[in-house]
Give the backbone structure.
Amino acid sequence: MEKWYLMTAVVLLGLTVRWTVSLNSYSGAGKPPMFGDYEAQRHWQEITFNLPIKQWYFNSSDNNLQYWGLDYPPLTAYHSLLCAYVAQFINPDWIALHSSRGYESQAHKLFMRATVLIADLLIYIPAVVLHCCCLKEISTKKKIANALCILLYPGLILIDYGHFHLGLALWGVLGVSCDWDLLGSLAFCLAVNYKQMELYHSLPFFCFLLGKCFKKGLKGKGFVLFVKLAGTVVASFTLCWLPFFTERAQALQVLRRLFPVDRGLFEDKVANIWCSVSVFLKIKDILPHHVQIIVSFCLTLLSLLPACVKLTLQPSPKGFRFTLVSCALSFFLFSFQVHEKSILLVSLPVCLVLSEIPFMSTWFLLVSTFSMLPLLLKDDLLMPSVVTTMAFFIACATSFSIFEKTSEEELRLKSFSVSVRKHLPRFTFLPRIIQHLFIISVITMVLLTLMTVTLDPPQKLPDLFSVLISTELTSANPPLLLRKTGPELTSVPIFLYFICGTPTTAWCAKRCHVRTQDSNWQTPGRQSRTYT
Amino acid sequence: MAALSVMTGGGSWFLALALGVTLLKCLLIPTYHSTDFEVHRNWLAITHSLPISQWYYEATSEWTLDYPPFFAWFEYALSHVAKYFDQEMLNVHNLNYSSSRTLLFQRFSVIFTDALFVYAVHECCKCVDGKKACKELTEKPKFILSVLLLWNFGLLIVDHIHFQYNGFLFGLMLLSIARLFQKRHMEGAFLFAVLLHFKHIYLYVAPAYGIYLLRSYCFTANKPDGSIRWNSFSFVRLISLGLTVFLVSALSLGPFLALPSIFCLWFKPQGPRGFLRCLILCALSSFMFGWHVHEKAILLAILPMSLLSVGKAGDASIFLILSTTGHYSLFPLLFTAPELPIKILLMLLFTIYSISSLKTLFRKEKPLFNWMETFYLLGLGPLEVFCEFVFPFTSWKLKYPFIPLLLTSVYCAVGITYAWFKLYVSVFTDPPVGKTKKQ
């Protein structure tokens, strides 16, 4: 491509920012006995290197599952093993069984950071560059600007472990969008086998590929494609799980580690529907465990079904990307045992649609970074967070001129506004509302950050700031709702939720339905069905 | 919203570049810093805690105050802000004190004072010839110059990693150059005199200022063929200049080999561009032949050269050789492992961008490098690989630990000497500017 040197400069800048951020502290630094995610990664290298495969997922005297036991699929374990071989070559003390627990040194930190940087360089960054180069109908300069913004997205830089699975998933998206279906599905299967949370993205992949098969005709080429795809999926899963298929107990144990249904509906600090609803309605106490699972499953399925059905009937790369966003969002809001960091699984597809709805995407990405603030503050990452967020904002604002693109047309809400105007003829102020909401949300984020850092919360409301952070006013984000704080609640968060919730769901619903001129989907009756 | 959209609209690329590099500087805060950090902390302590009469006598620490008085006043001013960060750093006896707040204050003071540098770059961009009609922003000389100056690799790693205050000093120098280009000679002279009293290393380029101002400002007009018209001499101008620059340049320590270029400046004036060329030559000559020269002094030649590089293809070629080898010669300053990826990535970023953008700017003229120069520059890659990745694992490391430094210095010396020579030739072979100047 012309101006390759600018793209190279962007990649080099992305790498530099990643490395300089990684010079800061890591999660759990100097905090025995459990430390943090960094120690977990080191521990997995220790386990996979020193123990035979059959013992990796089982509790034993050598492998205490309570101390950062492996709870990701086999590909993570193989990756850790590979890193362990390199570690063994440099300094065996880093992964010596038992005695290396809590090992911390400057050299080891450099090693861990280097493995992450190399993984990013080999998998994630080329995928981003290729994605931007393959974007249609935009100039070279815009493609490069797009790459810059995606590479500067703070969430993926600040969370300190590698995002191998996101890189693989991105290759999957690229492959499938460019009609390299087998390679794309292989890449995605590998991604799922790396981190099971990638299942959030699995339904859009399935529906898109199924739609393609239908389009090609079920009796001819479509059927052949379907068989090939099925074969690829089965083969890749078999290959990854081969060592665990020898005994039934092995496979079951791995599954039990991957899907800890015993842990309950949610951990106490994630910002999704269950956490918020449980403030008024203690779901955990009312419903028995298995019913919770069924309810969560049903709601997740209901919320993503319309988008997936549409994608199957009308497969297109653009629809695929938008469906990825809405499905990931549904899973984040309604699914079982969601972690705060899972917002990254939503952020990646939003990065992919950055060039199409820049204003909303930028807003969402800013808020998603902000939502992880308590986690980042715990790891002493205030300065890098603020700096990278500002850099991201400046990059997006300059590249896409986002403040000029807030008309109804550009926000893709034209059909929605038109149909609302049939009932309320004066509903012309949607763009202005959204602009004002954006400004308010940015101001709130800045204020909350300042307050969290400088002030101590009042004695009676110890979680006040966490609550406020998760109730931040935005209509592009899923309502980042109340955290479980018990009786010290204020009524402000509830009010904010209802302000946010309705336009948000409307936005999500419109993402699924009314992008095309399909008249079947524009009758008011059908639309009201999609509101929750 | 409208205000925001104006701000992020078409003319704000300069602001975005400046903010972007500032944010990058913030990310460099936790990196390695050299003993210069302690030097400046000590000077903060000396100027804050002791009376003026003691400033140049105080010797508790080995890093005594050895910059001119303006710099001492600058440290004094900073110390009044420092006391809100950490009072302990202002204690003269707290040798090597580096609490996290001290680090934060010092780093932020460098980043903050760089604002003057940003302003100076903005002024320099106005002096760049924008006649080449380019609709594409990234191909405009102004844009390229802004990137080359704001994102200069050498300045980034010397100021924001190694730790020094070169940013605002170079800002003063570039601003004085810009003023001379804009024919505001008195301001230019004044700014340069101020600069000299901040850091005396700039004496190297004082002859260039002295002769240029005498020849092109005090003599108010030339004859048609460009030679001097003696009766156009203006005493008023001379005296006013004398009050500022002349006395100081008389003290200059003689980069004697710069004299021919100074003569050229007198007998064949070429306007501000000629002055700039002479300034760069003075800086380079003193770098090459001066006494107790520090590696960082190469920046004194590289930064002003950026201004010339976006003007002519020949200058661009010299600039690229000079900057690439000059920046590479700064590598030994950062010898710690965590900073290794930073210096390589930033060096690649600057080098690839500068070479490609200048090549694109001058694509209609002959290629910038001949095969010899290309090979030489490409040779820097293997040299780096050998020095940093291969040599430490060989048996020579214990016996001859100085080899990487030796190789780096010798290899870069070749490039810098070559650039110096080419620049000298260009000073003598370019046609003079023969226009008559009016008051």
User: Anything to note?
Assistant: Chain A touches chain B through 37 residues (CB under 8 Å). Residues 472-532 of chain A have pLDDT under 50 and may be disordered. Residues 106-133 of chain A form the longest helix (28 residues).
